[in-house]
Amino acid sequence: MDDELTGLHNRRSFLALLRRHVLMAVERQTLLAVVVLDIDGFARINASHGYDFGDAALRHVADELRQLIRPQDYAARLGNDRFALILTRLMNKGHAELAVQKLFRRLEQAFSSGGHAVRLHCSAGVAICPSHASHADFLLRQAEKALALAREAGQPWRFPADDGAQAGGLSEWWDLEIEMQGAIERGEMFLRYQPKLAADTLRPIGAEALMRWQHRSRGLVPPDRFIPIAEQTGQIRPITVWALNSALRQAADWPPGAAPLSVAVNVPADMVAREDLPELVENALRLWGRPDTRLILEITERSLIADPARSFRILSQVREQGVKVSIDDFGTGYSCLAYFKDIPADELKIDKSFVAGLLDDPACADIATLIIDLAHRFGLTVVAEGVEDEATLAALRARGCDTVQGHLFAEALPQESFRGWLQQRLPAA
Q: Full-prediction pTM beyond 0.85?
């Protein structure tokens, strides 16, 4: 159900979505944020410039919200000049903070229509599930209370009163967003390679390329900090394209073995359903591909959920180029056997949490066994990541796991170190 004026979800549709996604967030122990947004002095805008201008201003805010949200998020008009967002699958509270900061930056530009121009000033309240509430109605109330607090304090936005965050200023997350721009050009981004080996012979068969950011003043910024920022701000696409081209270019310099080596590059959920993904891959292969290097795209289960039909079609086009698809962290997302038989993939990666518990937790052992058996029944190979000791390796071999990676064999290595590691272990071509 859509709002007639803006085309966004209306209040009834929003509440239904919020209740469903709050239940999912609580059940799966993920974070979700609700943002409630008002246009300050909207009645005065209508009185000064007319209702047609006011309607145009509402449509403008709706368009900005559409541009801001990711495919897995939702925007709604709750009534009059009040809007709301549902931000799903957040990494942490800073992820929501960054989204709000970005929205206010988008609204800084003056809006003009019909010969009139105004600068739209807004106030917002943000509440996090489950930190502030784990029930949809209470969570929305918390966001509305935070909005009232923001207005009382003269701040653009706030978390609820019991949250210690100070809103309205530049956070570390915004600092990193700004500093990330130009990081590739400054040479601060680089790749590390985590070796992948055949489980039975321990012969190297390739590596996973892992992005790293060496900030000029902060030092090494962990991926779990900068990747969510890149996803929220739209910088993940150029970073991923850089990683794709860099990995293939550097893999072309690896020593040749008796069989082709693979290089795996992680592709974020937002890019899996993009129509230009096959073209980006084709361009990188044309520039840097070579016959003795095979490209693997690693995606998460969550990448397939928003629009399975579209994702499947795009990934099928990628596979037609000779590229393999690997489902990363399998077993931790939204596994659905209904679509598994048609999934356009070649490889499943058992999440390291199950590998870590393989020897001591019967449930982890059962899940790992089931994943391996399921994958093999559908003609997929299986990778276990996070292998740390010989006993775990033996347990994986006994279950028929195909490929292993982890600190038992090597940490993530710089390009030159990985080349040396390969030269010591590869049989002559």
A: no
